[in-house]
Design a protein that fits this description.
Blueprint (H helix, E strand, L loop, with lengths): L17 E2 L11 H10 L12 H11 L6 E4 L2 H12 L4 E5 L4 H8 L5 E4 L10 H9 L4 E5 L11 H13 L3 E5 L13 H6 L3 E6 L12 E4 L2 H10 L7 H12 L1 H24 L4 E3 L6 E6 L7 H8 L2 E2 L1 E2 L10 E5 L3 H15 L1
Helix pairs in contact: 1-9, 2-9, 3-4, 5-6, 10-12
Length: 352
């Protein structure tokens, strides 16, 4: 199955609505990031650096790699499109359901990708055997989210090592989208594989864990030769001066802030998952991220759950049109305790 353009995304809830459709850190940006934002206002009359070398150095320090291994951009979405038009794979395969901009980028670059469909029965986990079959079918690029959005499923690091090795041996690009890895733990990241293999690329985001979606800041990690090739193909001034200063402030406090956020969100996710799973008519899929994927018994009322939630002042991500999903599937963010309780109450009211 080939994939088509899909521009439906979460995060555009009406004003005044509690937004569970966007999966961001419920703690909001660190105070240091907000201070940096205001301080940077005096710099907006100046051009930023054509390429954010200072930021790349900070990111490299965080991940214990060389600055030459880093390419920063205007959100990881820009970098996904950069990969598509620069690497130009001819038979890309994408594990679905997943972030639709991966397929969109390939289509815009001229090649509709093939789907590696994960199954509901296995909790939407990607299997290494699926990767092997894709390679047998001539795959020259494979994209896997870890943790994957919207499912929350996580390809384990041992399996990621296996996938990276078999892709590399066949000259196939292996791209891991780790936009949500901070919520699972840095020890699960495949960044080291990207340093060791010229065929592995890891996408990362500062947007999610630092809650700076309005500024757009993402980066990728790759071998030096691949990173140089991508950097040369990337538009200059992709990272504006405000985003760069805020990102640097985030990185200054990253270790403590991310650890505190992960502990809070993990506990909140466990509580939210348990509470929702106890409601008749709700199926909750296991998640390693800051969101949960739900399957609701809508009894033929397609989109009925989303409409009910909006009437309660809550926005959720309706997944019915996302390739690999079916009507009745939704994604909800993990937010603060009081907000989560409001969601739980609205779900119970719907299922009564």
């Amino acid at each position: 199955m080939k994939l088509a353009i899909d521009r439906t995304h979460g995060g555009n809830a009406p004003c005044g609505v509690l937004d569970f459709s966007a999966s961001l850190n419920p703690l909001g940006p660190p105070p240091q990031a907000l201070a940096a934002y205001h301080d940077a206002a005096g710099l907006i009359a100046r051009y930023p650096s054509p390429y954010p070398d200072d930021l790349a150095a900070r990111l490299a320090q965080r991940h214990r790699v060389a600055p030459d291994n880093i390419v920063a951009g205007n959100g990881s979405t820009q970098l996904i499109h950069l990969l598509a038009r620069t690497l130009r794979p001819q038979r890309p395969f994408v594990a679905i359901p997943t972030f639709s901009e991966i397929a969109n980028a390939m289509i815009v670059a001229g090649v509709a990708p093939y789907a590696m469909l994960t199954s509901r029965e296995r909790g939407f986990a990607i299997e290494t055997a699926q990767v092997a079959r894709a390679l047998e079918q001539g795959a020259d690029a494979i994209f896997i989210g870890r943790p994957n959005s919207p499912t929350g499923a996580m390809l384990g690091l041992d399996d990621a090592v296996e996938v990276a090795a078999v892709c590399s041996s066949r000259g196939c690009w292996c791209v891991f989208d780790e936009a949500f890895i901070d919520f699972a733990g840095e020890e699960h990241s495949a960044i080291r594989l990207a340093i060791e293999s010229p065929r592995v690329i890891v996408l990362r985001s500062l947007t999610k864990v630092f809650a700076i979606a309005g500024l757009r800041l993402g980066y990728l990690v790759a071998s030096r030769d691949v990173a140089r090739r991508l950097r040369e193909a990337c538009e200059p001034w992709s990272v504006n001066v405000v985003a760069e200063r805020v990102a640097e402030a985030c990185l200054e406090v990253a270790e403590d802030f991310v650890a505190r956020s992960r502990a809070l969100i993990t506990a909140a996710r466990v509580h939210l998952s348990s509470a929702l799973a106890s409601v008749e008519g709700v199926h909750v899929f296991a998640s390693s991220a800051n969101f949960l994927m739900l399957e609701m018994a809508e009894n033929g009322r397609a989109g009925g759950f989303a409409r009910h939630m909006l009437s309660c002042g809550i926005a959720v991500r309706d997944l019915r049109d996302l390739p690999g999903c079916t009507p009745g599937m939704y994604r909800v963010a993990v937010r603060l305790r009081e907000e989560n309780e409001r969601l739980i109450a609205a779900v119970r009211a719907y299922c009564e």
